[in-house]
Specification:
This protein is an alpha+beta fold. Helices cover about 35% and strands about 15% of the residues. The protein has two domains: about 120 residues, CofE-like (60s Ribosomal Protein L30, Chain: A), CATH 3.30.1330; about 90 residues, no CATH class. α1 packs parallel to α7 and α4 crosses α5.
Amino acid sequence: MAEELELIPVPTRILTDKDDIVDSIERYTKGKIGENDLLCCAESVVAITQGRFVRPEDLQISSVAQFCCRFIPDYGSLASPHGMQSLMNVEGKWRVAFALFAGFLGKIVGQNGLFYKWGGTETAMIDDVTGTMPPFDKCIVYGPGEPNEVVKKIAERLGCFGAMIADVNDLKRSRVVGVTDKVNGQMAAQLLIDNPFGNASQKTPICIIKNYKQYQESK
């Protein structure tokens, strides 16, 4: 009889850019994870440990960023001048502006997602202020660097079936950022749809999916 699938959030202290994400995950999952399990980590925490964040007060806001952010829905991380400027700083001001214009034209003809396709990797990754855990809720956090290399190191260190970095929110959106080769990322992402990560006072940015290997093989 197959072991039962179970999602186990793992509490940690606040992780910062002084921490190594692989070392931290090993420490907090010790005795909790097995060879058939999948280790999942929130993308913002990985990025923070890599120092991939910026404080809004350190940004110089351009008139282009002030203009472009007006076309982003209020709930989006790029809806503020600071969020938009942080994207332009890493992806290029005119690239982002062009992608936004192309996205607008695409919607007219029924083609969605062009802004996120052409605006660069960080377009869908940036978390504006309040988008992550304190004290980094006062920072803009980029996506993690080399996520597929990070998950490979995590899985090798833990000896588990696989590892995944995911971008999950309370709006029922779950997206794979990095995943090891053996794992069906889309299947695993659906298991995280109710967002077991707690990036605020819960301090549970890690989640173990117990017996995921058997679950995936049974599908």
